[in-house]
Amino acid sequence: MTIQGDVPGSLPQSYASLGALFAEMSEFLPADRISREAGTCWAYGMDNSRLHHPADIVAFPLDHDEVQRVVRCARRHSVPITTRGRGTGTAGGSVPLQGGVVVVMDRMNQVLEFRPEDRLIRVQTGIINADVQRIVSAAGFFWPPDPTSNALCTVGGNLGCNAAGPHAVKYGTTRENVLGLKAVAGTGATVIAGTETTKGVVGYDLTRLLIGAEGTLGIITEATLKLTPLPDARCLIRAFYPNMHAASQAVSRLMNQPATPAAIEFIDGNALNLMRSHSTNPDALAIPESAGALLMIEVDGMSESLANQTDLIQAAARGDTDEQAALISLEIARTPQEMALLWSARKALSPTLRLVAPKKINEDVVVPVSRVPLLITALDEIALRHSVKIVNFGHAGNGNIHVNLLIDPDDPAQSAAADDALAEVFSTVLALKGTLSGEHGIGAVKREYIRDEIAPETLLLMHGIKHVFDPDGIMNPGKKIPDAIAPPAKPGKSK
Ligand SMILES: Cc1cc2nc3c(=O)[nH]c(=O)nc-3n(C[C@H](O)[C@H](O)[C@H](O)COP(=O)(O)OP(=O)(O)OC[C@H]3O[C@@H](n4cnc5c(N)ncnc54)[C@H](O)[C@@H]3O)c2cc1C
Which helix (H) or strand (E) holds 136? Predict the structure, then answer.
């Protein structure tokens, strides 16, 4: 049995007043920044999840005030709003599942203020992540969130999903690298949250609440990003192991010593085969025949201390005498060219999977780092039990494993097996005290699994928060948290 939570119910599928809404919005958005044209509405109806539903109206605001006016108009007409950065998200977060207005943020791409002396930059959130990196690197800084999609994705999308990448193991995710923000809530109110300082406890922490909310509470229009000085030296260690178990044991050792690597990326045997067969330069990758797993371990810091850190990290990657037998080879790439070649092969993996299987179900589960070996063993067993090919790689230093189930969606038996395998993957992750998504977000695709992770009473509180920010349920409906929640567990059975 389920009961309805306190979240406003589904909005109507057709909106009687769309024409009136369009006319109102056209009063402040010129014709080249608002559209009801079918082709435009179709194009802004998809993201990298491959879900699709066309928008009814597409709006391209230029600043906070225009966003606020759009939200206020849409609220008056009870029309839903879906916020979109560049649509690279994999969970359907920017797909307007119930139609309505898609607010496209990528023309809001201005730098509002850059203060290297305070290690901050204030930007409009439609700016591309790589553009921020380019601007701040000229002054010796970087902004740590580094999703593989950074050449395309927006800072707003990074905030929406709490995105991260390989360097999160040392520098944290988006949440740890934002000082403050400005947003428009679903009520139409302006929210100004956070500080320009690295300490601050005044009021509730709405900055970190809005980050990761996937556009369900409001639209983040501006953000003050916390910058980190660029390291002046780095190297990349490649360590090959015969199997994932040996590699995941090495990850535990690497995280249990004082020199934190800047990145620890994890690639399994199936993914290595893809690198061998799809790399433009397979010989340069020199993957040993017997390798069943690879760790790419980046070390960074001041040039004076890099050698010491590298020694500690190498020793952990090798393991003690017994485990050393498990290491096949270890090399260090020191030149920018060598490092770039290895990183490009790693970054090509996700798109390559699309080439080899008609459908990939890509999960980004996370477990405590010491339990990565248990997860990997369980994934092998699940793949065997359900006869589903599973390819794993990801950000092992955070315990964040991209589990890719490769199937032919036209084969009903394979689809059913993948569903069963996926349910087992999730229950295994939760049994290991992990979490269902580390960075891709919940969007539409994982929403119904949330009840397995979040206890009913906590979910009710989340619904209460949603109601305060968005009483009419217009902000990105159908995403992030389920509408209906299970009744509280009976005494003695609470999670
Ligand atoms: C090849 C590839 C590699 C990827 N690698 C990574 C990776 O390493 N790490 C990672 O974390 N992700 C990764 N992703 C996923 C995706 O790129 C990120 O989640 C990215 O942050 C999304 O940015 P976007 O601008 O495309 O946002 P969109 O996809 O447009 O939106 C994502 C979510 O954020 C919300 N949103 C967008 N802008 C705002 C805003 N201004 N205010 C409030 N909410 C907003 C949307 O409503 C939606 O729910 C990858 C995707 C691809 C295709």
Answer: helix 129-137
Backbone angles phi, psi at 403, to 5 degrees: -100, 115
Residue-wise pLDDT tens digits, 239-274:
999 998 899 889 989 999 999 999 999 998 888 988
Q: Give which of 447, 463, 459 is closest to 7, Cα–Cα.
A: 463
Q: Are strands 81-84 and 101-104 parallel, antiparallel or unpaired?
A: parallel
In whole angstroms, give the CA distance from residue 487 to residue 117: 52
| Whether residue 157 has its Cβ less than 6 Å from ligand 1 | yes
Which atom of ligand 1 lies at the shortest distance from residue 215's CA?
44
Q: Which helix (H) or strand (E) holds 323?
A: helix 321-324
Host H or E run for residue 378: helix 372-386
Mutate which of 46, 88, 216 for ligand 1? The one with the most ligand atoms within 8 Å of its CB, which is 88
Please choose from 94, 102, 128, 162 the residue to mutate so as to test ligand 1's pocket, defined by most ligand atoms within 8 A of CB. 94
- DSSP 8-state secondary structure symbol assigned to residue 370: G
Question: Tens digits of per-residue pLDDT, 103-131?
Answer: 999 999 999 999 999 999 999 999 999 99
Say how many Å lie between the CA of residue 318 and the centre of ligand 1: 36
Q: What is the DSSP letter of 262?
A: S
| Integer Cα distance of 101 and 11 in angstroms | 13
Helix (H) or strand (E) holding 73: helix 64-76
Cα–Cα dist 284/297, whole Å: 18
Three-class secondary structure of residue 35 per DSSP: strand
Q: How many CB atoms lie within 10 A of CB 412?
A: 9
Rounded Cα–Cα distance for residues 330 and 393 (Å): 19
